[in-house]
Every structure is written in C-alpha cells, then in structure tokens.
TrEMBL record:
Region (Disordered): 67-87, 135-155
Classification via Pfam families: DUF4439
Domain DUF4439: 16-143
SUPFAM superfamilies, alphabetized: Ferritin-like (SSF47240)
Name listed for the protein in its UniProt record: Ferritin-like domain-containing protein
Length: 155
C-alpha cells in the first residue's frame, strides 16, 4: 500500500494495528454509552457488543506489545449521538461498527498473515453487528462511499 496525498504516512503493520486499536477504543466508549441509555434486548445486545469490542481492543493491545510498540491509550471522550432515543442510538451503533470496519480495512494489507486473518474476521464481525443495528450492507464493507472501488455496471 503506498502513501496517498490525503494520507502521507508510510504503511506499516504497527500503524495499521494502531488505526484498528483507535477504532476499538471508540467502540468501547460508544457501546458503554448505548448500554446505559437503552433497555431490554437492546441493552443486552449493546453489552454483548461492548464485550466483543473490549476483547478486540485487548487483542490489539497485546499484538502491539508483542511487537514492542506501545499501545495508544483511549481518548478521554468520543463523539456521541444528539439524543438517546432508540433510532439515534441504533444509528450511532451502526456508525460505530462502520468505523470499526474501516479501522480493520487497513490491517487487511498487513505483511503478517495473522494480522490479515484478524482483519478479515473483524471486518466480517463489524459488518454483522452493524446490520443488527439497522446498518446497510454495502458491496465493499469497510470502505467509505468515496473510497469504494468502482464497479462496471455494463459488464
């Protein structure tokens, strides 16, 4: 993967791990918020997803430490939805998963096959969780609409 004008840094496995870790930190923060503001099955689902993201965060931190890289700490706060009504929380949760998928997309280009496997499984899990919250399935999960590869509809 080469550097682009929008992202001038050089690709490294460590850098890709850090991107994924930042996404997991945000997801952990977000799901704690969601769980505190919903009830019933939605609360149970949010806490299941919170546990999954905590496990991923811990895995990424361990992988960084094994590579003698200091894991980045979480931010003190992350963006939250404007309200706590069910629709806004669902949209927020789906967006968290889309951002997590985007975080793993770069890791899929890692030189280490263990990291590529982790990225593929994590992309799949994030996509499924997004769908559970009402997210839309896109042809290229993890890609933002402006980054997605072009398809030729004429074929």
């Amino acid at each position: 993967m080469s550097a682009t004008p929008e992202d001038p840094r050089e690709f490294t496995d460590i850098g890709a791990l850090r991107v994924a870790l930042r996404a997991e930190h945000a997801a952990v923060y977000g799901y704690a918020y969601i769980g505190a503001h919903c009830a019933g099955g939605r609360r149970e689902r949010s806490y299941e997803h919170l546990d999954a993201h905590r496990a991923q965060r811990d895995t990424l931190s361990t992988l960084l430490a094994e590579r003698e890289a200091e894991p980045d700490p979480s931010e003190s706060a992350y963006g939250l939805p404007d309200s706590t009504d069910d629709a806004d929380l669902d949209t927020y949760a789906a967006r968290l998963e889309e951002q997590t998928a985007q975080g793993y997309l770069e890791l899929a280009a890692a030189s280490d096959s263990v990291l590529r496997d982790l990225a593929a499984r994590s992309l799949q899990s994030a996509t499924v969780r997004a769908l559970e919250w009402g997210g839309k399935l896109t042809p290229f999960p993890g890609f933002s609409p402006d980054q997605a590869p072009k398809t030729d509809a004429a074929e």
